[in-house]
Structure formats: C-alpha cells, structure tokens
Specification:
Rossmann fold, alpha/beta, Immunoglobulin-like, 4 domains, single chain
Length: about 575
C-alpha cells in the first residue's frame, strides 16, 4: 500500500510516555525443567496470555535463545525463574549481556524483569499484579527525593530521631524529635509497612543478601531488617522481632545497599520481600554498592524527576545512560555497576508516580516526538522542552541523568542528520534516543528552553498511515485533552487558522476507530468537543490509553489520552 505523505505529531507527556500493551512484544523466557513444573509453568502461561507473548525455553543456558530472541525482537522480556536460578551470576553473566546482544548496537534491546519469589505462588502473584500508582513514600534514608512524591516520610540513617514529612499540599516538615522518630526505627518502619499504605520503600546503608543494617556507618542503637526462609522481619536492637506481613503491591528499592538484590539462598532478602513484604517490584544490587555506583541514581531520576516512566522503564533507561557514559568516558561511568543490579517483577507492569495527587514538581521537561512520513524514509524530530530551570545531564551519583526518550514504536536504520548547536551529541537506537546536552560546569537550562535532534529511519508503521486528501489548512493546532487522565468526561480543544474540512476521531491501541466526534467543514477559530468514554454505538469502552486524531488533508495531529474507571 502506497504511503501518503503527512505530518504525524506525537506529544509525549508525563503519564503517557510508556509503551502501550498493544505495542508490546513480550517474551517469556523460562528454563525447560522449570516450565515442566505445573505451578511454575502456570506463571509462564499467565504472562504469555496476559501480554499475548511467546514462551522461549532453555536447557542449560539462556544464551541458547539469543538467535530466537533476536528474530522475535521483543520489547519486554520476563525471565521466569525458580529463586535459586536467579542468582548473581544469572543476573550479571546472562540477563544483562543477553538483553544487549539482540542487535548490533551496545545498548539494551528490551526492558526486562525476573519473575520469581520464595515459591511459585509468589511468582504467580507478580505475573497477575495490576498496575498501581506510587503516592506514599516511606524511606529509611534521606536520599530519597521526598519532594518529588505526593506525600511521604523519610528518616535519617546517620542521625538519630531525624525525620521529614511531606503532606499532599506540598508542606515539608523537617525535625529531630524522638517522639516522632524513635532512636531505633526498626519496629517503627516495619509497622508502617505492615499498615499496607506504603507504595515505595527506599533504603540505604550497609546490607547483605539477608539483611539491611538500619544505622550507618555502624550499627549503633538500631537494629536490622532480616530474612529467613521467606520471612522478612525486623530485628530491633533490644526489643522482640517484628514480622513483615504486608500484602499491598509496592516497590522495594534498595537504593544504596550492598548485595540486598542478590539471591544466595532461600533465606535471602529478595524472596522474603516478595513473599511477606508485599514487593511486586524490587530493585537491588547483586554486587557491592559504592561511591561510583550509578545505576540506582538513574533509576530514581527517570522515575520521579525526568520523564516519569514506569519503574521497569526507569530501571532500563538508567542502564542506557550508564552505558553511554562508559562508552564516551563522560562523568557517571562505573563499568562494574553496569551489570550489577537486578529487577524482580513484571517488566511491563505499569507502576509509576501518582501525578494526580498532591503537589509535586513533575518532570524536568516535556518530551515531544514529530514524525514526517516519506516514501522511502521518515524524518523524526525528538525534542525536550524544559519545565523549570535545571540541569538535564549527569549531576551526581544520585542526581540527574541525560534525557532519554523511550519510543512508542520501533525504529529501524536510524541516522542522525541534525541537532541544535547547543547540543553535544546523541545516540538513537531502535527503542530510544539519548540526548547529551549538558555537562557539569555549564549553566542550567531555563524554563521554556528546548533541545532537539532530527534523524531519519525506515518508514515507521502507525495506524494513521492512510489519510484521504481534502482541504489543507494553513495550520491546525490540537491541544492536550483535559482532564487527563479522566473518568467521566474529557474535553478536546483544537484551533483552525484558516477554513478547513476536518475530522476528529478517537482510536484504540489497535488502530480501530472508537468514535468520530466531528467531521465537516469549519471556519477559523477554536473549538472544543467532549468525549465521555463511549464508542460510536454508545457502549462504554475499557480503561486504557487511546489516541485522538485531528486530520485535514494530508496533515494529521494526534495525542494520547488515558481513560481510568
């Protein structure tokens, strides 16, 4: 089918940066002997069914699947593993290198996660976990970006009784008070986890595969979080143990701990956090953590400060920033850290920052993608627009990172053709573009400043590839719908700068028309239409991501909206 020339513009904002399920190509990788165990086979089958993916089985090494996975070109890979299979060597020597080996570039080719637990029941719960929003932060370290979360509590690992609270109105209270934060925080923190209101728990300080020492640098007057045969528990310095018994889905992030992500035996922390701590996603180092460990700093940056990606996406993007710095010898490089962290959980799980509750700074910048379709190749412009004065590049171990834009489509044979003179360089792969636009010592970028890169690639396949010619306006402007996400009704505004015949249509992620809101000729002006989440027949549609597309002649402008019921 001949491709019509048209301009397709994607504006990628905040909640809407992620790949949709319809754009997933999901691979389930599982050891043959594990798949033959009915309970573990059910885990793999559940993921395959949920994401309409394919199962790949291996015998003695996952490297047996390199060619098959290269042909399949997955966007996400779930490694379904019995716990003792998912050891440090598996993470460092198999998972990380394999997921970079599926094409010719040295960067990651798929977002990955390890689906495991103390038993198969835990892994099945991971496989079935529904999406959730991260609103409430609890932290055993001050290095947690409290201001970027709607509300939360962070405590100091080095100073007794030091605590910070953030309220939904943005107020932060910073105090040292034994009545608010006990000298030994062990029971205090465990009780809050067991209250099942915590969405993310962050720790730092000394750790091992089966413990986290609360105080730093010495044990002092505080205790430990420990694990034993699937049971996570608090071991206060002087008081009785307190078992974890939490069921709400949460992220456990061992930000600054050595070895907490390492599964050495069934009494390691990772299986226990999944089994009794309620962790649907867990990130921790399988190696020693140190001054130059940068993977986790990038993860928290892309989750809460830059792009606001899902947790697995943020973990993936952090590693691409680290790989870029290693290759280019720019600040932020530490080769041993490249393969040193593990992500346990579904790589496609939509667990992201809650942007609708409370007062938060939001993303440092907005991300925009413009595609100009051609007969032989497409031209893609990727742009960031600064939302505030800040430094979009590596600032510190746990600071900012180079902007990375994760594509909602696959790019083949990309070639950068131009970029702003203020930009340094960029890398574009099949699934992302990384911008190197700021170095330490350069002035911050001001709010409203933009940086952009332009590249060509093979034609990108989208559902908007066929558009009937009609009257072409000088320009049409399509605004972001509001509210977004929405429940009952959302409003879509657009502006015509000259008379035009236009069509405003809602599409689902398969490219199927849901309903047409307007079709006809209109005079210049601004128009507003509403959509109530029903299709053309008046039936309610399911929650999820939809496109609304405004077309006129060979111009098409499209944005995404999110319906939540």
């Amino acid at each position: 089918m001949k491709r019509n020339n048209f301009l397709l513009i994607f504006f990628v904002f905040l909640l809407l940066t992620s790949l949709s399920q319809a754009e997933f190509k999901y691979a389930v990788v599982v050891k043959s002997s594990t798949y033959q165990i009915p309970e573990w086979g059910l885990v793999a089958d559940t993921l395959m069914s949920r994401y309409e993916g394919e199962i790949f089985t291996w015998g003695s090494s996952v490297w047996e699947l390199e060619d098959d996975l290269s042909i399949y070109q997955p966007t996400h890979i779930a490694f379904v593993c019995e716990p003792l299979t998912a050891n440090a060597s598996f993470v460092q020597s198999m998972v990380w290198p394999l997921t970079r080996s599926l094409d010719d570039d040295p960067y990651g080719d798929a977002i990955w996660g390890i689906i495991t637990g103390y038993n198969a029941e835990d892994a099945l719960r991971m496989a079935n976990c529904e999406s959730f929003r991260v609103k409430n932060l609890l932290s055993g370290t001050m290095s947690c970006d409290l201001n970027y979360y709607p509300q939360g509590i962070c405590t100091n690992e080095a100073t007794y009784n030091h605590i910070r609270y953030k309220y939904l109105d943005g107020t932060i209270v910073d105090t040292t008070d034994e009545n608010l934060c006990p000298t030994d925080r062990t029971e205090f923190l465990m009780n809050m986890i067991n209250a099942d209101t915590v969405d993310i728990f962050i720790t730092s300080g000394h750790g091992n595969h089966d413990r986290w020492q609360l105080h730093y640098p010495d044990v002092g007057l505080e205790g430990y979080f420990r694990s034993n045969n699937g049971q996570l528990y608090g071991d206060p310095r002087f008081d009785p143990d307190v078992n974890a018994n939490s069921i709400n889905p949460k992220i456990y992030f061992a930000l600054g701990n050595c070895y907490v992500g390492k599964i050495q035996n069934l009494s390691s922390m990772a299986p226990a956090w999944i089994h009794t701590g309620g962790a649907s996603l867990m990130t921790g180092y399988v190696i020693a953590e140190g001054t130059y460990s940068h993977q986790h700093g990038g993860t928290k940056a892309f989750f809460a400060r830059q792009g606001l990606y899902t947790w697995p996406e943020a973990f993936f993007l952090a590693n691409q920033a680290l790989q870029f710095d290693i290759i280019n010898n720019t600040p932020g490089a530490n080769p041993p850290d490249l393969n040193g962290s593990a992500l346990y959980g579904d790589p496609a799980l939509d667990a992201r920052l809650d942007t609708e509750s409370g007062v938060i700074p939001g993303s440092m910048y907005d991300e925009q993608i413009e595609i100009v379709s051609g007969e032989v190749e497409d031209t893609v412009t990727v742009r960031i627009v600064m939302n505030r004065e800040d430094c979009p590049g590596y600032t510190s171990k746990w600071g900012n990172r180079h902007p990375i834009i994760l594509f909602p489509f696959r790019v083949e044979n990309p070639s950068i053709i131009s970029y702003d003179p203020d930009c340094h360089t960029a890398v574009v792969t099949e699934n992302f573009l990384l911008m190197c636009i700021w170095y330490q010592g350069e002035p911050p970028l001001a709010a409203g400043e933009t940086r952009e890169f332009v590249f060509t690639c093979d034609p990108i396949q989208t559902f908007l590839e066929e558009t009937s010619p009609s009257t072409l306006p000088t320009e049409i402007i399509l605004y972001q719908n509001y509210p977004n996400p929405f429940n009952a009704q959302t409003h879509i505004e657009y502006c015509l700068l000259s008379p035009a015949t236009v069509n405003l249509t809602i599409y689902n992620l398969r490219g199927e028309r849901v309903c047409t809101l307007f079709e006809g000729h209109q005079s210049p002006g601004t128009y507003s239409l509403s959509w109530d989440g029903h299709n053309q027949n008046g039936d309610e549609v399911a929650s999820g991501i939809y496109f609304y597309s405004l077309t006129s002649g060979n111009i098409c402008k499209s944005r995404r909206l999110l319906l939540l019921k």
